[in-house]
Amino acid sequence: MTIDAIAAELLDAVRARGTYRSLRVLTGAQAPRMRVEGREVLLFAGSNYLDLAHHPEVVEAAERAARDYGCASGGSRLICGNLDLHEALESELAKFLGQGAALAFATGYMANVGVITALVREGDLILSDALAHASIVDGCRLSRAEVRVVPHGDLDALEAELRSRASPGRRTLVVADGVYSMDGDTAPLAELVPLARRWGAILLLDDAHGTGTLGATGRGTPELFGVAGEIDVWTGTLGKALGSFGAFAAGSHALRELLVNVSRSFIFTCALPPPQVEAARAALRLVAAEPWRRTRLQALAQRLRTRLGERGIPTAPSTTQIVPVLIGGNQATMALCERLLERGFYTQGIRHPSVPEGTARLRITPMATHSEEEVDALADAIVAEIGLA
Ligand SMILES: Cc1ncc(COP(=O)(O)O)c(C=O)c1O
Predict the structure, then answer these.
(1) Are 105 and 111 in contact (CB under 8 A)?
(2) Which of 124, 167, 369, 389 allows an S-S link to 145, with CB 3.0 to 4.6 Å?
(3) pLDDT at position 388, please?
(4) Does residue 127 contact residue 161 with C-beta atoms inside 8 Å?
């Protein structure tokens, strides 16, 4: 069989499932308004939540780093790629999160895979939420530990698993997303943290979408729930609200030392390029200096939920800047996405395997710099298209 024949056969199966995907081409700087395949639209699909990716201070920091250090780090962290800039970023991230230490990874995907496989192995136990991000799922599979998938947010089911499978001699990892990326709800951290502790489990929290957007100072869901000092391993990305690229794992100094020594997705890859490191550092300063961005982001998301809700379109269980509108069918969802694009709004249709079968949805993400009128106009367009109210 030729490669093209193999591809055609496999793609036929994708098409038959109604999950065929193609890439859209966007033009211009990351902003609330962009060009998608030539048409100017309001962007309600990205994760540049705080509109920092093209902020002058972020861009200037990246430019300076490119001039002074170049566009690559020139090696992996353990082979001549460890710059003073990486160490500075990690110290600042650790301080921001109130953790002992942090370690940068190339992506959030690699951070989750690298942390999970460093901490548990065959014979150990992982308890993971049913809606965990793909990077957590893949990390769990790679670790070869026993993986038990717990119904979403179900603390009783989690405790039952802990009771029946955890034991003092068995390393146990409980994994949760701070914000669930396709539903916009949060992990019940106020209860989850003490539960994991009671059973002697390690808690890994992936707060990819909470970092910079939630909590009084933008530290994310642990700050929102008052448990920021109690997270064993805290991963997050620099590529969403922080407007750059890359990721981190934060925790104790011992954790950092372990990851440097055994985490394969940290060891066997190039160090983050200087412009991305400096962009992330500038964004961290802006998160501290401009709290209005996260306040406004959450207010706009609330406004959207209210506007839709009062016209009969539920957005549950969202309580964050990720606002889903459940449609159900794959084709209906993607057709709605296209019609909204024609009206000048880019919201992303999401299908299996990003979400469970039969729960395809629009995933809407406002930005801190959208106007109230733009959010209202989007709600009106959705109502008009769905045919309610
Ligand atoms: C919950 C969650 N974790 C991790 C990631 C991966 O982060 P990155 O884009 O930095 O690889 C994402 C992004 O898609 C995410 O939504």
Answers:
(1) yes
(2) 124
(3) 57
(4) yes
Q: What residue owns the CA closest to ligand 1's atom 10? A: 108
Joined together, the tokens standing for residue 256 give: 């950092």
At 376-385, the pLDDT tens digits run: 999 999 999 9
Split at pLDDT 50, 70, 90, the class of 120 is very high
Return the structure tokens found at 132.
């965990």
pLDDT in tens, 59-90: 999 999 999 999 999 999 999 999 999 999 99
Q: Helix or strand or coil: residue 255?
A: helix
> How far is the CA of 68 from the CAs of 64, 65, 276, in angstroms?
6, 5, 13
Please state which of the ranges 155-164, 267-276, 380-389 shows the lowest mean pLDDT. Answer: 380-389
Query: How far is residue 321 from each of residues 56, 186, 189, 335, 389, measured CA to CA in Å?
Result: 24, 11, 18, 23, 24
Q: How far apart are CA 226 and CA 209, in angstroms?
A: 17
Element (H, E) at 108: helix 108-119
Pocket test for ligand 1, best of 49, 152, 181 (most atoms within 8 A of CB): 181
Which of helix, strand or coil describes residue 179? strand
Residue nearest atom 7 of ligand 1, based on CA coordinates: 108
Ligand 1 near 359 CB (within 6 A): no
Residue 108 CA, ligand 1 centroid: distance in Å: 5
Pairing of strands 348-350, 39-43: unpaired
Residue 73 designated active-site: no
Tokens of 258: 């372990």
Sort strands 360-364 and 146-150 into parallel, antiparallel or unpaired: unpaired
Q: What is the mean pLDDT of residues 283-312?
A: 98
240 is catalytic: yes
Cut 0.85: pTM above it:
yes
